[in-house]
Design a protein that fits this description.
Strand content: 5-15%
Number of helices: 24
Low-confidence stretches: 1-9, 102-107, 627-634
Distance between the termini: 71 Å
Shape: globular
Helix content: 40-55%
Number of strands: 15
Structural class: alpha/beta
Bound molecules: 1-(5-O-phosphono-beta-D-ribofuranosyl)-1H-imidazole, fe (ii) ion
Strand order of the largest sheet: 8-9-10-11-12-13-14-15
Largest sheet: 8 strands, parallel, barrel
Radius of gyration: 26 Å
Length: 634
C-alpha cells in the first residue's frame, strides 16, 4: 500500500517564521481596546502610536488578535469566537448537524474518502458544528436593525469608526475651515460622531452592511457604507496551479496586518473546502467568496452542466462554514449577453462568463436570476450578505459604461429590492476598467438604480497600458470613485492580468488601496481621517523622523528608505534629509525664518520676505545649484 498523502500541510519553519513576522507589533504601537456602553463586553481594537513628543495617535486596526502580544494563537485551533455570546443571547438560531459538512470536497467523492477528510479536519480542530436560524427566524443584521434593535455588532462598528476621540479634538481647532475644505461631488453627509443608533439606521435602510455570518463568530465586526470609512478588500486564494493552504492563511494574516478590511477567498483549485475552513477559522475580518467557482469544480469545469441544485448546495455548504458574503452574478441575464458581442474585450468576469455560457447553451434565463428569492431564503438563515456581481463589467477602457454594463446595473438594483424584502444585506459590485472622465457616471448610475446600497468596485483601472503596475493604474480610479461615495474598494495587485499575487504583491496592492481609501476619507471629511495626516506633517516639520515613520502606512519601508542614505542614528534627529541635503531643506529654512521673526519681533510674513532674501543670497553663493553634496552628520 502507498503511504497516505498528508491531508493537511505540515507546519514548515518558513511558515512559522512568516507568521511570526506578521505578528510583530507595529513600531511604537500598542494595541488597546475600547469598551462598549450599551454592551459592556465589547472590546473594540485600536492601535495607539506613541510619539516622541509625548502625544499619542490612535488608528483603525484591522489586524485582529495577531498583533496583540498577549493573544495565544494556534492556527490549527482557530481564533476565539468573539461573537458567540452575542449570537447565543439572541436565541434565534440553533446548532444542527450540517448536511453539507459531508459535501463534496477536493473532487474526492466516495463516502469513505469524505469521512476520512472530515475526521482529519475535525482532528485539526478547525471544523465547527454549524448553526442556522430557527424555523421562521431571520438572523440578519438588517432584520434586527429594521426592528429597532441595536446589536453588539452595530455598537462595535460605531466605536470602531470613531476610534479614540481625545486626540482627534486636538487637530480640529479650525473646524470651520475643515468643513469648507471637505466635500463630495455627489453629496454625502458624514456625521462628526457615529453613534450606534446611526449605524442601526444606515443598516436598516440598506445604505450600509455589516457582513457577519453567524457561523463566523471570530470576526471583529466592520461596516461597509458610504457614510463610514472607505474599506478595502484583498483577494487571495489558490488556483489549480499554485499556492498551498498554508500560504493562503499566511496571506490572510499578512493582508489584515497591512489594512485589509475584508478578504475574499477566490480559490479554484483542489481542496477548496478545506482551504476555506483554514481561512475562516483564522480570519478576524469578514470573508467573501464566489460560490459559482466551487459549483463549477463540482461539475468538472463544464459550465453547461451546472444546475440550480448544485449551486444551492454549494451556498449552504459555504454558509455553514461561515462565509460572510457571496458574490452572485445574478444580473447576467440571457437578454443582455448579446450586448457584449461588439465589445473589444467581451466578458471578463469569471463568474459572468460562466453564467453567460450556461444561458447561451441552454438558451434559458439564468438560474441565479430565476431562483433569486430561494437564494435570499438561504442568506437570511445565516446572515450571509449579497455582493451582487458585475458579470458584465467592462474589461477595457473602450468598453466602459456601455449598454451591457448599465443593463446589468439596473437589474442589480431590482434584485436589491427583492433582497431587502427579505431583510438580506446587499452591496453592489462595480467595474472594472473605466477612464477617469467616465467614473462619475458610474457612481451616479449606481446611486440612481441601486437605492443607495453600498457600491463595491474593482479599481477601476483608469488606463490599460500598465501591466505590472495595475495597482497604481487602478488606485487612481479607486480614489476617485471612493471620494464620490463608493463604500469598498477591491484591490488590484501588480500581478493583475499576469499571475497570482504572492506575499509582496498583496502588500503592494494593499498599500495602493490604503492610499486610495484614505485619500477619499480625507476629501469626504470622515471624522478624524485628516488628523493622522496632520500628525505626520507636524512630525515632518519638527524633524521627528521616528514619528514620521511610525505614523505612516508602512513604517518599515519608510525607515528603510531613509536609512539607505542616512543610516546613522544621528540622522533620525537631523534637521534635514538626503533629498535636499542640510543646506536646502525648505522646512529647516521656514523654521529659521520663524526663529528669526521671533528674535526680531517681526511679523512672520515680513520675516519670511527678509529671510528668503538672505537665503537667496546664500543660494547664489553656493553656486546656484539645487543638488549639493551631502555634508556628513557627526
Ligand atoms: C469587485 C467588484 N467587482 C468585481 N469584484 C471582485 O471580483 C469580486 O468581489 C470578486 O472578488 C471578483 C469576482 O470576479 P469575477 O468572477 O466577477 O471575475
Ligand atoms: Fe482587467
Amino acid at each position: 500500500m502507498n503511504a497516505p498523502q498528508p491531508e493537511f500541510p505540515t507546519t514548515t519553519p518558513s511558515f512559522t517564521e512568516l507568521l511570526a513576522q506578521s505578528r510583530q507589533p507595529f513600531p511604537a504601537s500598542r494595541k488597546s481596546y475600547l469598551p462598549g456602553q450599551l454592551h459592556a463586553d465589547l472590546r473594540v481594537p485600536v492601535r495607539d502610536i506613541a510619539l516622541t513628543n509625548g502625544e499619542q495617535v490612535s488608528v483603525y486596526d484591522t489586524s485582529g488578535p495577531y498583533t496583540d502580544p498577549d493573544a495565544q494563537i494556534d492556527i490549527r485551533r482557530g481564533l476565539p469566537s468573539l461573537r458567540a455570546p452575542w449570537i447565543d443571547a439572541r436565541g434565534d438560531s440553533e446548532w444542527y448537524v450540517g448536511r453539507m459538512r459531508m459535501a463534496l470536497d477536493d473532487g474526492g467523492r466516495s463516502d469513505e474518502a469524505l469521512r476520512l477528510k472530515q475526521l482529519r479536519a475535525e482532528a485539526a480542530g478547525l471544523q465547527r458544528q454549524p448553526r442556522r436560524a430557527k424555523s421562521g427566524a431571520n438572523v440578519t443584521q438588517m432584520h434586527y436593525a429594521r426592528r429597532g434593535i441595536i446589536t453588539p455588532e452595530m455598537e462595535y462598528v460605531a466605536l470602531r469608526e470613531n476610534g479614540r476621540r481625545e486626540w482627534i479634538a486636538a487637530y480640529q481647532q479650525d473646524a470651520e475651515r475643515e468643513q469648507r475644505l471637505v466635500g463630495n461631488p455627489l453629496g454625502a453627509s458624514i456625521p462628526r460622531i457615529i453613534t450606534p443608533e446611526f449605524v442601526r439606521e444606515e443598516v436598516a435602510r440598506g445604505r450600509a452592511i455589516i457582513p457577519a455570518n453567524i457561523n463566523h463568530p471570530e470576526i471583529e465586526p466592520m461596516a461597509i457604507g458610504r457614510n463610514f470609512k472607505v474599506k478595502i478588500n484583498a483577494n487571495i486564494g489558490n488556483s489549480a496551479v499554485t499556492s498551498s493552504i498554508e500560504e493562503e492563511v499566511e496571506k490572510l494574516v499578512w493582508a489584515t496586518r497591512w489594512g485589509a478590511d475584508n478578504v475574499m477567498d477566490l480559490s479554484t483549485g483542489k481542496n477548496i473546502h478545506t482551504t476555506r475552513d483554514w481561512i475562516l477559522r483564522n480570519s478576524p475580518v469578514p470573508i467573501g467568496t464566489v460560490p459559482i467557482y466551487q459549483a463549477l469544480e463540482k461539475v468538472g469545469g463544464v459550465a453547461e452542466d451546472l444546475t440550480w441544485e448544485i449551486f444551492r448546495d454549494t451556498l449552504v455548504e459555504q454558509a455553514e462554514q461561515g462565509v460572510d458574503y457571496f458574490t452572485i452574478h445574478a444580473g447576467v441575464r440571457l437578454a443582455f449577453i448579446h450586448l457584449t458581442a461588439q465589445r473589444r474585450t467581451g466578458i471578463v468576469s469569471r463568474g459572468g462568463s460562466i453564467m453567460a455560457k450556461w444561458c447561451m447553451t441552454h438558451h434559458r434565463e439564468s438560474f441565479l436570476y430565476e431562483h433569486f428569492e430561494d437564494i435570499c431564503d438561504i442568506m437570511k438563515q445565516y446572515d450571509v450578505s449579497f455582493s451582487l456581481g458585475d458579470g458584465l463589467r467592462p474589461g477595457s477602457a473602450s468598453d466602459a459604461n456601455d449598454a451591457a454594463q448599465f443593463a446589468e446595473l439596473q437589474t442589480l438594483g431590482e434584485l436589491t429590492q427583492i433582497a431587502w424584502k427579505h431583510d438580506v444585506q446587499t452591496m453592489i459590485e462595480g467595474p472594472g476598467h473605466v477612464p477617469m472622465h467616465l467614473i462619475q457616471a458610474n457612481m451616479a448610475e449606481q446611486l440612481k438604480h441601486c437605492h443607495e446600497a453600498p457600491f463595491y468596485t474593482l479599481g477601476p483601472l483608469t488606463i490599460d497600458i500598465a501591466p505590472g503596475y495595475d495597482h497604481i493604474a487602478s488606485a487612481i480610479g479607486a480614489a476617485m470613485i471612493g471620494w464620490m461615495g463608493t463604500a469598498m474598494l477591491c484591490y488590484v495587485t501588480p500581478k493583475e492580468h499576469l499571475g497570482l499575487p504572492d506575499r509582496d504583491d498583496v502588500k503592494q496592492g494593499i498599500m495602493a488601496y490604503k492610499i486610495a481609501a484614505h485619500a477619499a476619507d480625507v476629501a469626504k471629511g470622515h471624522p478624524g481621517a485628516r488628523a493622522r495626516d496632520d500628525a505626520l506633517s507636524q512630525a515632518r516639520f519638527d524633524f521627528r523622523w521616528q514619528d514620521q515613520f511610525n505614523l505612516g502606512l508602512d513604517p518599515d519601508t519608510a525607515q528603510a528608505y531613509h536609512d539607505e542614505t542616512l543610516p546613522k542614528d544621528a540622522a533620525k534627529v537631523a534637521h534635514f534629509c538626503s533629498m535636499c541635503g542640510p543646506k536646502f531643506c525648505s522646512m529647516k529654512i521656514t523654521q529659521e525664518v520663524r526663529e528669526f521673526a521671533a528674535q526680531k519681533g517681526l511679523a512672520e510674513d515680513a520675516a519670511l520676505a527678509q529671510g528668503m532674501q538672505a537665503k537667496a543670497q546664500e543660494f547664489q553663493q553656493a553656486g546656484g545649484q539645487f543638488y549639493v553634496p551631502i555634508t556628513p552628520v557627526n
